[in-house]
Amino acid sequence: MHLDEIDLQLLALIQSDDSISTEAMAQQVGLSKTPCWRRVQKLENAGYIMRRVALLDADKLGLGVSVFVQVKTNQHDVNWADEFARVVAEFPEVVEFYRMAGEYDYLLRVLVKDIPAYDKFYKRLISATALTDVTSNFAMEQIKWTTQLPLPVMKNK
């Protein structure tokens, strides 16, 4: 599927506020309601819209400590990597999980209530799997956070 300017405008509207009505989107992009709805359905079916969610306030939910956990391992076979991914997926505190290139093999972003809660998480993690090195970095302040992807800008023809 090739995205045009209207598709990109629709994606921008949806990712900034998914509660926007089809009618409001249609007005903003210059379409009538039915063609707008069809385009959004096409974007969903093509996988551009992965899912629709509500974003919750971590601080208000008592999850004000964000920890970036860097993991090194000396295990680099597929079975271990699959097992590690399965183990980490079981921890609800892990909100992001990446396999990295560079000095560390994995990066986790963990949300917890406080330092003692992180310590409990850490102890559960290291007892669940064999790791060579774990380094924890505590975020002091969140300066920028967004779920909005930087969409391409169409050039005028």
UniProtKB/TrEMBL annotation:
UniProt keywords, alphabetically: DNA-binding, Transcription, Transcription regulation
GO MF annotation terms: sequence-specific DNA binding
First and last residue of the signal peptide: none
Annotated InterPro entries: ArsR-like_HTH, AsnC-type_HTH_dom, Dimeric_a/b-barrel, Tscrpt_reg_AsnC-like, Tscrpt_reg_AsnC/Lrp_C, Tscrpt_reg_HTH_AsnC-type_CS, WH-like_DNA-bd_sf, WH_DNA-bd_sf
GO biological process: regulation of DNA-templated transcription; response to amino acid
Cellular component GO terms held in the UniProt record: cytosol
Domain HTH asnC-type: 3-64
Any single Pfam family the record assigns to this protein: HTH_24
Cross-referenced PANTHER family: DNA-BINDING TRANSCRIPTIONAL ACTIVATOR DECR (PTHR30154:SF17), LEUCINE-RESPONSIVE REGULATORY PROTEIN (PTHR30154)
Annotated protein name in UniProt: Lrp/AsnC family transcriptional regulator
Species the sequence originates in: Marinomonas hwangdonensis
The organism's taxonomic lineage, starting at the top: Bacteria, Pseudomonadati, Pseudomonadota, Gammaproteobacteria, Oceanospirillales
